[in-house]
Each structure stands twice: as structure tokens, then as C-alpha cells.
């Protein structure tokens, strides 16, 4: 825009000055408006896009904050934040497993935040005591079994799977997987290191095959009769039940869920969660986004989309999740313990030869 103002005398010059002031005020105001609408939060997410998108849409609807998502595997994203250091664009790390969040905190990737909203919305055992990370959805790692070969009354606890009655009947994924490391970490907390090692040794000696593949691979082995029981995260069965693929829905009919340790410590649970990164440039927006994810509105979406459990019992679970039995007794061990015991768990797996 070009403005030509001809001035012939002093009065006109003063008009010109006033006009210039008005114009500069107008330009600064529009700049402020632009920066408000460019308000953003950058999320590095190990959660799948289809899961996150409805939540992002809902958040953007309610707030004038744009959410930019970069998706990737948990380990890759954490490495990236580390490498990017102070220059990272990441404001929020969204990831799975308390063990991963604990590691991110230990590696100095996270910023401590203080939010009374989050402290009220999220039960204490599902978040870091120091305000470094917050659990946003619950998953339970349970026993899944072939009902043609196993009666529910034969099942009881994780500990029982070390019993020789299960010889050659168990398949489970490798110990390099964080889900199994966190499960063993919880057993270390609940039973002590020696008992946990005995347990791992016993379960390993009952394997029907070497650990290979993910949870769904093991569930498929149960369906195919290659083993009778496995330990897997509940939402994988939820995905099968609601799958568009015929074979997955058929598989789902041939496998059942058993929540172990209902008379004792409760079934092992873990979380997906969020944290603000240490070098976040949009900390206020990052906190707002995490607070939104913990709200009733987001919790309802979360629970339905991935067949996970909400962080508060007042939020309804999906009908599929409900069909497995709800509520069940959860192990309410502080999830920080999973991270603290991770090294010990990895060493035990190594010693007993659980690949
Ligand atoms: Fe998973």
C-alpha cells in the first residue's frame, strides 16, 4: 500500500504526522492480532494420528491455538528431542508407558510444571510427583487365553504363570519391549527383586516358543493353538473386535480376557501420558493442551477411540471394554516405580534368558 501525502504548509505537516501515528497504531494492532491467531503448540506424538485428531480438532475449536503434530515412535521422538536440544520445536511429548516418561525425565528432556487443574483431574499414582509428566489414559496388561483349552477357573495371578502346570503353554513378546519391562518392574515393587526373578525364570521355562513379534502376534498364536495363554494389553483385543477385517473379528471370538491378581495387588496397569519439554517455547499453550486432554470432554473421546480406560472412573468406557468386566481391580502402585525399577527388570530378564 502506497500513501502519498502532499504537504504545503505546517498545518498539513501536522495532519500528516497524526495520520502516520494512526497508521502505525493500526499496523501494530493488526500485527498483534496476527500473532494471536498464530498462537500454537507443537506436539511430538507417539500416539497414532487417528487417535489424536479428534482431540486436536476439539481443542482447536475451543481455543485459538493451533496444534501442530509430528508423529513417530516413542524411542525415536525422545531421541529427536534430545538431539534438538534448545532448538527443539517440541512443546509437548505425548507417549506411551510410564517407563518412557520416566526415562525422558531422567534424560533432562522435560519441564516441571505446576497445574492445580491437572493435579485435581489426574489421580496421584498416574502422574509424576514432581510435575514432570501426567497420565492421560490407562491400559491394563492382562492374561488372554484360549477358552477351548483353558478354563477361567484355572487362572488366578501373574505369579501363577510361573507354575509348571503352564509348561509349554505360554507365549509372550520379547523382554526388549517396554510393556514387559514395566510389568516386571511392578512385580519387583510388589514382591521384591528375588521373587520377581524367580517369576521371570518360571514363566520363561513355560514358553512354548521363543518371544518374537508384538502383542498381537502372541494373541494370534493363542488363537492358532500355538500356545494357550499370553499377556497382552487389552486395547489390542478392542481393535480386533471393532476391526473392519473379517479375520481379526473372527480371531477376537477365539480369545478371552482374564484380569489377574483381583484378590491381591490388582491387574497391572500402565498409561499413555504427556509432558512439557524442557525447552518448550509455548509452555502456557502446552499446559492448556494437556489440561484439555485430562478434561471430561477429551477423556470421553480418548476412551472410545482406542478402547483404553479413562483416568477417572466417572467417565464411561466403551461397550467393548465394558464387556470384559468393568470396573476391575487395578494395581495402584505409583507408576514412577516402573521407571525406577526398569534397569533391575532388564537385568533380571537378561539373567533368566528371556530374550
Ligand atoms: Fe501398544
Compile the SSE list and pairings:
Layout (H helix, E strand, L loop, with lengths): L9 H28 L2 E6 L3 H14 L3 E6 L2 H11 L7 E5 L1 H9 L3 E2 L4 H6 L12 E12 L32 H14 L1 H13 L9 H10 L4 E5 H8 L4 H8 L2 E3 L10 E9 L5 H12 L1 H11 L12 H5 L12 H5 L1 H11 L3
Helix pairs in contact: 2-12, 6-7, 6-15, 7-15, 9-10
Please characterize this protein's 3D structure.
The chain is built from 15 helices and eight strands. The chain is an alpha+beta fold and 355 residues long. The N and C termini lie far apart (69 Å). Strands 1, 2, 3, 4, 5, 6, 7 and 8 form an eight-stranded mixed β-sheet that branches. 46% of the residues lie in helices and 14% in strands. Strand 1 (40-45), helix 2 and strand 2 form a beta-alpha-beta unit. It has helices spanning 10-37, 49-62, 74-84, 98-106, 116-121, 178-191, 193-205, 215-224, 234-241, 246-253, 283-294, 296-306, 319-323, 336-340, 342-352, and strands at residues 40-45, 66-71, 92-96, 110-111, 134-145, 229-233, 256-258, 269-277. It has two domains: 39-137 and 271-323, 3-Layer(aba) Sandwich (D-Maltodextrin-Binding Protein, domain 2), CATH 3.40.190; 139-268 and 332-352, Periplasmic binding protein-like II (D-Maltodextrin-Binding Protein, domain 2, 3-Layer(aba) Sandwich), CATH 3.40.190.
